[in-house]
Design a protein that fits this description.
The complex is a heterodimer of chains A (447) and B (229). Chain A is built from eight helices and 13 strands. Chain A is of the alpha+beta class and 447 residues long. Chain A folds into three domains: 138 residues, Beta-Lactamase; 102 residues, Helix Hairpins (Orthogonal Bundle), CATH 1.10.287.130; 156 residues, Histidine kinase-like ATPase, C-terminal domain (Heat Shock Protein 90), CATH 3.30.565.10. In chain A, the strands form three sheets. Chain A has a six-stranded antiparallel β-sheet. In chain A, a hairpin with a 5-residue loop joins strand 1 and strand 2. In chain A, helix 1 packs antiparallel against helix 2, helix 4 runs parallel beside helix 7 and helix 6 runs antiparallel to helix 7. The chains are: A alpha+beta (447), B alpha/beta (229). At the A-B interface, helix 3, helix 4, helix 5 and helix 6 of A face helix 1 and helix 8 of B.
C-alpha cells in the first residue's frame, strides 16, 4: 500500500526534474528573442531621430501607436523636463530598473510584465521602447500543462502499480496455495509455471527443484524406515523366540523372570513401533489418506474402548460430540484420540470430558492439576516428559505421535491449564495458505 | 493339516515349524521365495505362512502370483512392517491375515487355527443367524443373547466381542485378534484394555453360573467353551 502512494509521487517528481532544464532554456530563448526585437526597434527609432529630428521621432512613434502594428509594443518619449512628447504610456514606469545596458523589466498596472530598453537621446531626452513579455503567459500555460501531465502520469502509475500488485498477489497466492496443497497432500505434484520466463517462473522452478529434492529425500527416508523396521525387529524376534524356547524348557520357578523379560521386550517393540510410525508420519509416508472421516464416530469408538479403564479407577468419561467430518486417516485419528485419552487417564484426575465441534476441533479435558506452565511449550516434543519421575512406559512418545498425527491432518495440538483442569485441543491450523500473501506481518505470533 | 512355511531366517523357521508340529500339523519349510512359490504351485496345502521380506521373490509377490493363477489357499503374512498402509498392501495382495514381527508363537498358533477353521463358518451366510455353545445363545438377526433361556442385555461392543468368541468357540483367541475384529482400527493396544472389556462381558455372561464359559488362557488370550481344557 505504501508503494502505491509513493510510486506516482516519485514519477511526478522525476518528470518535473527532467523538464526543468528544458523549461529554463525555452524561457531563455523567448527572452533573447524579445530583447533582440526591442533592440532593433530602438535602433530604428534612433535612426529616425538622427535623420528627421525630434519631430520625425514623435511622428514615427505616433504612427506606430496609432497603427497598432504590435499591440504589445510600448513607447514613451520624454523631453528634458520629463514632459511626455509621444508614446502609449502616460508616465515613466516607477518600478522600472535598468541594467548597465539600459535593459530591464517593469510590471504593468493591468498585470503582465514588460521588457524595455531605456535610450538617452541628444538634448537629455529619454526614450523607452518595450514589449509585453510573453514569458508569464507561457510559464503559466506550461505549468498548467505540466500539472495535468503529472496528474495523468500519477494516475497511470497508480493504475500500473495496482495492476502489478494485483497480478503479483494473484500469482503468489496461487503459488502459495499450490505449495500448501503439496505440503498437505501429494509430494509428487509440482507448482505450475506460467511459461512467461519471468522472476516468478524462476521462483516456481526453484520451488519445484526443492520439492523434487525433498521427495527424493523422503522416499529415501521411507525406504530406510522400512529397512530399519526390518533390521530392528529381526533381533527382537530372535530374542523373543529364545526367551520363549527357554520358557518352555525352564522349571516353573524361572517363569516369572522370563515372562517379565518378554513383557519388557513387548514394551520395547511398542516404543519402536510408535517411533517408526512417528517417523513415517513426519516424512509424509503416512497420513496422506484423504477419506472423509466422521470424527465423532472415531472419538466415540475410542471412548468405548478406553472408558472402562477410567471407570476401573472410579472415574467417568463424558462425551460431548457434535457431528464433524474431516478428511484424513481414521486409523491415525483413532490413535490420536487414544493417545490423548490414555494421557488423561494416566496423568489426569477426576472425570474426563471428550468433545468434538462442527469446525473440526477436538478436545480432551480432565480435572487434574495440569502441567507446570514451564513445561507447556515443550509438551508434544519427542521423548519429552513433563514429569520424568512418572516413568510410564511409552508416554514420552504418545503426545509426540498425537502432535504428528494432528499436523498430518492440518491441525495443531494446544495444551492449556484451565485451573482447575487440563485441556488438550486439536484445532485446525490456519496455515500460511489463508494468510494475505503480500501484506502478512503477524504470522509468527499465531505460531 | 498341511502347512507351507516360507521363511528365510532358519532359526525363526525352525521355531515356528516346531510349534506347528507340536499342535499336530504337517509343515513344509521353504528357505527362499523361489522355492516357496514352486512348492505352493505344485503341491496342495491347507495354509501358507509367508515372510514378507524375502530375498529375490518376496512374500507379497508369491501371493500375487498364486492368486493370479487361481490358487486360493489361505495365507498368513509375517512382516516387520506394521503400519496400516503396509498391512493394507499385504491384504490387497491376497493375504487373509497379517502378523507383525516380533510375534509370540501362541499368537501365531491362534491365528493359524482361526484361519484353518475359517472356511466352515464364513462361507455360508445362513449358518450365522444363531450361534450356540452349551446353554449360551446369540441371535445375530435379533441381536439378542440368552443364557439358559434368560435374556442378557449387552452393549453393542460387548455383543460383537461375544459374537467373535462364539464364532471361534473352543479356539484360543488372542487379545490382538479381539481388538482387530471388534475395533475396526489399527492402533497400538499398549494397555491391556481388552481385558477390562472381556471381564465386563464375563460378569454378564458367567455371573452366578456354575459353568463358566469364558476362560482366560494365561499369557495368550481367551477361549470360549464349556470346560477348561
Amino acid at each position: 500500500m505504501r508503494l502505491l502512494v509513493l510510486s506516482p509521487l516519485l514519477v511526478a517528481a522525476v518528470a518535473a526534474l527532467l523538464l526543468w532544464p528544458s523549461w529554463r532554456e525555452a524561457v531563455g530563448h523567448i527572452e533573447a528573442e524579445l530583447r533582440a526585437a526591442i533592440e532593433r526597434e530602438g535602433w530604428d527609432l534612433q535612426v529616425e531621430f538622427h535623420e528627421h529630428g525630434i519631430e520625425g521621432l514623435v511622428a514615427a512613434i505616433g504612427e506606430r501607436v496609432e497603427r497598432e502594428l504590435d499591440p504589445r509594443a510600448r513607447y514613451l518619449l520624454l523631453d528634458r523636463d520629463r514632459e511626455r512628447l509621444a508614446g502609449n504610456l502616460s508616465q515613466w514606469p516607477p518600478d522600472f530598473s535598468a541594467d548597465a545596458e539600459g535593459y530591464g523589466h517593469y510590471a504593468e498596472a493591468a498585470g503582465g510584465a514588460v521588457a524595455a530598453r531605456r535610450l538617452e537621446l541628444f538634448g537629455e531626452r529619454l526614450l523607452l521602447v518595450g514589449r509585453v513579455s510573453p514569458v508569464p503567459a507561457f510559464e503559466s500555460a506550461l505549468a498548467r500543462r505540466l500539472l495535468l501531465a503529472a496528474l495523468l502520469l500519477t494516475a497511470l502509475a497508480a493504475l500500473a502499480t495496482l495492476w502489478f500488485a494485483w497480478r503479483l498477489r494473484r500469482r503468489l497466492g496461487l503459488l502459495l496455495h499450490e505449495a500448501e496443497e503439496i505440503r498437505r497432500g501429494d509430494l509428487s505434484r509440482r507448482l505450475v509455471a506460467r511459461g512467461r520466463g519471468d522472476e516468478i517462473d524462476a521462483l516456481t522452478d526453484a520451488f519445484n527443484r526443492a520439492f523434487g529434492d525433498l521427495e527424493r529425500l523422503l522416499s529415501g527416508a521411507r525406504e530406510v524406515g522400512a529397512h530399519l523396521a526390518h533390521d530392528l525387529r529381526r533381533p527382537l524376534q530372535h530374542a523373543r523366540r529364545e526367551i520363549e524356547e527357554a520358557l518352555a524348557a525352564a522349571p516353573a520357578e524361572g517363569h516369572a523372570a522370563l515372562e517379565s523379560g518378554l513383557a519388557r521386550l513387548d514394551e520395547l517393540d511398542a516404543t519402536l513401533g510408535a517411533l517408526l510410525r512417528l517417523g513415517r508420519i513426519e516424512s509424509g509416508g503416512l497420513g496422506r489418506t484423504n477419506e472423509p472421516v466422521r470424527l465423532e464416530e472415531v472419538v466415540g469408538d475410542a471412548i468405548e474402548l478406553l472408558a472402562p479403564l477410567a471407570e476401573a479407577q472410579g472415574r467417568t468419561v463424558v462425551a460431548r460430540l457434535q457431528p464433524c467430518t474431516l478428511a484424513g486417516d481414521r486409523h491415525l485419528l483413532f490413535q490420536l484420540v487414544q493417545n490423548l485419552l490414555e494421557n488423561a487417564i494416566r496423568h489426569g484426575q477426576g472425570s474426563i470430558e471428550v468433545g468434538t465441534r462442527e469446525d473440526g476441533t477436538l478436545w480432551v479435558r480432565d480435572e487434574g492439576p495440569g502441567v507446570d506452565p514451564a513445561d507447556l511449550p515443550r509438551l508434544g516434543e519427542r521423548f519429552y516428559r513433563a514429569d520424568p519421575a512418572r516413568g510410564t512406559p511409552g508416554s514420552g512418545i504418545g503426545l509426540a505421535l498425537a502432535r504428528a498425527i494432528a499436523e498430518a491432518h492440518g491441525c495443531v495440538l494446544r495444551f492449556e491449564n484451565l485451573d482447575p483442569g487440563f485441556r488438550v485441543s486439536v484445532c485446525r491450523d490456519p496455515g500460511p495458505g489463508t494468510q494475505d500473501p503480500v501484506a502478512s506481518s503477524s504470522r509468527q505470533a499465531g505460531g | 493339516m498341511r502347512i507351507l512355511l516360507v521363511e528365510d531366517e532358519t532359526h525363526t523357521a525352525e521355531f515356528v515349524a516346531r510349534g506347528l508340529r507340536e499342535v499336530g500339523h504337517r509343515v513344509d519349510v521353504a528357505g527362499s521365495g523361489r522355492d516357496g512359490l514352486f512348492l505352493a504351485t505344485t503341491e496342495t496345502f491347507d495354509l501358507l505362512i509367508l515372510d514378507r521380506m524375502l530375498p529375490v521373490v518376496d512374500g507379497l509377490t508369491i501371493l500375487r502370483t498364486l492368486r493370479a493363477s487361481q490358487i486360493h489357499t489361505p495365507a498368513l503374512v509375517l512382516s516387520a512392517l506394521a503400519e496400516v498402509d503396509q498391512r493394507v498392501e499385504g491384504l490387497k495382495a491376497g493375504a487373509d491375515d497379517y502378523l507383525v514381527k516380533p510375534f509370540a508363537l501362541v499368537e501365531l498358533l491362534a491365528r493359524v487355527e482361526a484361519l484353518l477353521r475359517r472356511p466352515a463358518s464364513s462361507s455360508t451366510g445362513t449358518e450365522g443367524t444363531l450361534l450356540r455353545v452349551a446353554d449360551l445363545e446369540l441371535d445375530r438377526l435379533e441381536r439378542t443373547v440368552r443364557r439358559g433361556g434368560e435374556r442378557i442385555e449387552l452393549k453393542p461392543r460387548e455383543f460383537q466381542l461375544l459374537e467373535y468368541l462364539l464364532r471361534h468357540a473352543g479356539q484360543v483367541v488372542t487379545r490382538t485378534m479381539l481388538l482387530e475384529a471388534v475395533w475396526d482400527y489399527h492402533f497400538d493396544p499398549r494397555t491391556n484394555v481388552i481385558d477390562v472389556h472381556v471381564s465386563n462381558l464375563r460378569a454378564k455372561i458367567d455371573r452366578g453360573n456354575t459353568m463358566p464359559l469364558i476362560h482366560t488362557v494365561r499369557g495368550v488370550g481367551y477361549r470360549l467353551g464349556p470346560a477348561d481344557g
